[in-house]
Every structure is written in C-alpha cells, then in structure tokens.
Amino acid sequence: MNIEFKNKIIKGNCFDVLKKLTKKDNIKLVLTDPPYLHNKGGGKTKGTEGKSKIANSPIYKFDSFMMEQMSSFEEKEIYNLLNEYNRIMDKMNCFIFCNDTLIPYYTMWAIKNKKKFTLLTWEKPLSILNRNRFSQNLEYIVRIYDDGTALNLIDLEKYPYKKIYYSKTQKINTPKLKLHPTQKPINYLKGIIELCTNEGDLVLDTFFGSGVTGLACLELNRNFIGIEITDKYFKISNELINKTKNQTRLF
Prior knowledge:
The protein is α/β, with parallel strands linked by helices. It contains seven helices and ten strands.
C-alpha cells in the first residue's frame, strides 16, 4: 500500500489521481457513487420544468447542484473509469451506485471484459413524483467482480441483524444529517464493506463527497483512499474524517 495515500483524501479529478495507483496498492474494494445521468427535459430554463413533477427534495430542482453538475456521467466516462479500476485491482470487486439509465453501460462493460456482475437495489422514500411516468424511489448498485471475491461469512447467530446485508434489496431511509446532496446511508455502506473486506484492507472511493465511505471504513478498522474534486466537499470530508479520528460520532 502506498502509505502516502492511506486514509487520506486526495483533491483532484479521479481520472488523474487513478493514474498514480497500481495493483501494488492492493485495493480490495471499490465503493463509490459517481455522477448519474439525468434527463433534464421539460424545459431548458428555470421555471419551465412543467407541472407533472412534484419534487419533495430541493436536490431535484432544475438549477440545483446535483442537476447542474452531477448529472452528466455517460458511456465514455463509465468505460474509462471501469478500465482504470480493472487496471489497479488484482481482483476486481466494485460496487457502484447508479440510476437505471446507466445500468446498460456498466453491465455491457462487464460482459465485454468477461467480468461477473449483479444488481442490488436501495429502496428509499420517494423524492420526486413524476405523473407522466413511473416515479423513482430506487437506487441501483452495480457490483462488477472477478472470481475469488466471494462474500464473507458473517456469524448470523451472533449478529442476526446482519442477515439483511446479504439481500439484494434493502429498504433504508436517507440520512437525516446530509452533508452532501446524494449522501448514502452509512449502514448500507458498512454492510458492503463488511461483506467484502477484512480488517486492515484498503477501500477506494473515487467520488468521496462528504466522506461517509471513509467514516464507515474507520469504524470497521479498514483503510481507505478518497478522491474528491469539489473544494466544498473536500473540506467537509476532511472535517468529518478528522472529527471521527477524534472519536466524535456524527451519524
């Protein structure tokens, strides 16, 4: 492991930072939430979205940070990202959050590169009601992996509540304290980390956001590398990790 990056948040474009990583870093798991691809139709200017959508969350407003800056991840970026993950991992084992629009790109890359894949779902409260078509309260997690990355066997007699970790669908509320508009529940992330790594292993998150992946790793005695391009969330994630190291629990 490159000690320079251990339990550190690196500011920059993940495609640039990934070039500095190799198989020698011994990354066991990628757990990340890249930008999605959202259809921004229904009007090209603020206030012209139409009357079919009822947003229960401000992150879905036309001019929100998410819709303007985190909704344009397409086939080229996905293929480049997966190629880099494949290059730096001895055995590929990646869990990638996405929306339904992007599922074909992730799964076709897996097929073309002779990888295995499975699809998990996170059921959450309905954030936006679109009365022209079925509304979305699911997020998808594509797992792309190689042979030799079987899930850990958790002692369910000792920890019966952890049996939900093995389910392809989990129903969990969104975090009450959100430091990032697309922040994921820490307990969901901890389940994946516990199933796929051992203590001391290294987890990579190339879209670190508010740093909850790093927090989950520290609570489970894993190491992490986080990459974040945005000044605001680079600062927020550093504050979160530093407070965690000082044993101040925020979630």
